Amino acid sequence: QVQLVESGGGLVEAGGSLRLSCAVSGLTFSVFVMGWFRQAPGREREFISSIRPGGKAYYSDAVKGRSTISRDNAKNTVYLQMDSLTPEDTAVYYCAVEYSSVEKIPMEPEYWGQGTRVTVSS
Can you give the pLDDT at residue 103? Predict the structure, then answer.
């Protein structure tokens, strides 16, 4: 019943920006932790950001300082704004939800989206 659908990926020049979106259905969105992972070719899936129901955000060192996670509870949507993109940001980005009242770093998702691809050219 829970569905997460990512969008907003695409081809971007180095130094550019993207805003990824994740539309969620099937749960009480405002209650749960939401987050983002990414997986580059030949690499393990990497936790990069999360946001708690109250708005507290976490960023991994890889994206800290150039990314902003946010959520719109009225739209059941979580966003990841990424700036100053480099080719190392090329990956499939996955939205995730965690049924937890305790912060977990890295996040331990219960549900995943199917991903949106980001390609950053040099």
Answer: 82
